[in-house]
Amino acid sequence: MPTQATAPTGLPAVAPLTGLPAVVTPDTKFLRQMDDKIKVNVNLCFQCRKCSAGCPMAYAMDYTPAQLIHAIRLGLKDIVINSKTMWMCSSCQTCTTRCPQEVDIARVMDTVKIIAVAEGVKPPVSNVHTFNKAALRNIKWLGRMYELGMIGDLKMRTFEFFKDMGLGMKMFMKGKLKIIPSVSPGRTLTTWKIFSRVAKKDREK
């Protein structure tokens, strides 16, 4: 496993973080919190930035994946949990796959989202969080994704009833949206058990 790296020609070894104070004081509690939750050694990252180069959503992020990892290593909790980077992550796993140090960056993104929500931080990209809740509720009740039902739930949460209606009709005409969901009591029961175990673990923390 590599332990050293040479920065690409003309690029600094670490992607710069803008807007930082002259003296940075790490939040040690946040560092311990991240260590306990993710079980991923982010200090293995040597800022080669392959994750950022391959990320299809990097253009929409305020900090690239490499910058967010660097901020976590520095213990910059406020920057990390208030960033929109993890909310724009599509969980495609490209960053994790490309990392030469095998840092599970996608898992780090999920963990930061969990911490932010648990601490009551308002997501800077609210529609993404709303979509997540609608999708999880849909899966919890049916054991799998029912697209039309999820869309209805999302519209009721956002009140954007006519947004993307044209696209929705095209998908419906091509058979991509089923009117009747696929129902399986066994599958739903299994899903309920999974959600119950997760809720129990959250209560125990």
Features:
205 residues, mainly alpha, 11 helices, disordered N terminus
Written description of the protein model:
The chain has 205 residues and is mainly alpha-helical. Residues 1-14 have low confidence and may be disordered. Helix 8 crosses helix 9 and helix 8 packs across helix 11 (185-204). It starts with 27 loop residues before the first helix and ends with a helix. Helix content is 55%, strand content 0%. It has helices at residues 28-38, 50-54, 65-74, 77-81, 85-88, 94-98, 105-118, 126-142, 147-158, 165-173, 185-204.
Query: Count of helical segments?
Result: 11
Low-confidence regions:
1-14
Rough outline:
globular
Q: What fraction of the residues are assigned to beta strands by DSSP? A: under 5%
Report the C-alpha radius of gyration, rounded.
20 Å
Average pLDDT number: 84
Rounded to the nearest angstrom, the distance between the terminal CA atoms is 35 Å
List the helices and strands and how they pair.
Layout: H1 28-38, H2 50-54, H3 65-74, H4 77-81, H5 85-88, H6 94-98, H7 105-118, H8 126-142, H9 147-158, H10 165-173, H11 185-204
Quick recap of the structure?
The protein has 205 residues and is an all-alpha fold. Helices cover 55% and strands 0% of the residues.
